[in-house]
Amino acid sequence: MMCLFFVVMVSGFLLNIVRTETLQLAATRNSIEYEQALYRANAGVHHACAQLMTDPSWRGSVSEGLLPPSASPAGYTATATDNAAGLIVITSTGYHGRGQRTVAATVQP
Q1: How much of the chain is in helix, strand and coil states, percent to nearest 5?
Q2: Angle 98-100-105 from CA coordinates, rounded to 5°
Q3: What angle do CA 84, 75, 107 make, to 5 degrees?
Q4: What is the pLDDT of residues 56-100, one digit of tens each?
Q5: Distance between CA 60 and CA 72 in Å, rounded?
Q6: Secondary structure element (H or E) that encloses residue 99, with its range
Q7: Rounded Cα distance, 22 and 101, in Å
């Protein structure tokens, strides 16, 4: 009877450890994907700025990355538009896995 009690206690303890570690791993993965999405969004802003340096009259979209049919979709989409104050607003959305971040930058023509 004592052995059965010991086995049940150890099994419960191990199950709790496995659950906790699984939760920690998921939280770490989400954090990494969220940060990588931010880096990709910033890359989109830089890509649009490079396009504007090449052609100051350019307004439009740029994108790069692997699209959702892949195992881990990653990339960015950036759009440059004029606002009412005569400035250029670049809005870029970066995505990686399930993480997605949007960055906006305002530049002078």
Answers
A1: 50, 30, 20
A2: 170
A3: 25
A4: 999 999 998 766 566 778 899 999 999 989 999 999 999 998 889
A5: 26
A6: strand 99-107
A7: 25
Q: Which helix (H) or strand (E) holds 80?
A: strand 74-82
Q: Collapse the DSSP code of 50 into the 3-class scheme (helix H, G, I; strand E, B; otherwise coil) and give the result.
A: helix
Question: What does pTM read for this prediction?
Answer: 0.77
For the chain, count helices (H), then strands (E). Answer: 1, 4
Among the listed residues 84, 83, 79, the one whose alpha carbon sits nearest the alpha carbon of residue 60: 79
Structure-token pair, residue 37: 């999405």
4-40 pLDDT, tens per residue? 999 999 999 999 999 999 999 999 999 999 999 999 9
Q: Whole-angstrom Cα distance, residue 51 to residue 62?
A: 9
72 contacts 40 by C-beta, under 8 angstroms: no
Tokens of 106: 């305002």
Q: Rounded CA gap, 64 and 40, in Å?
A: 9
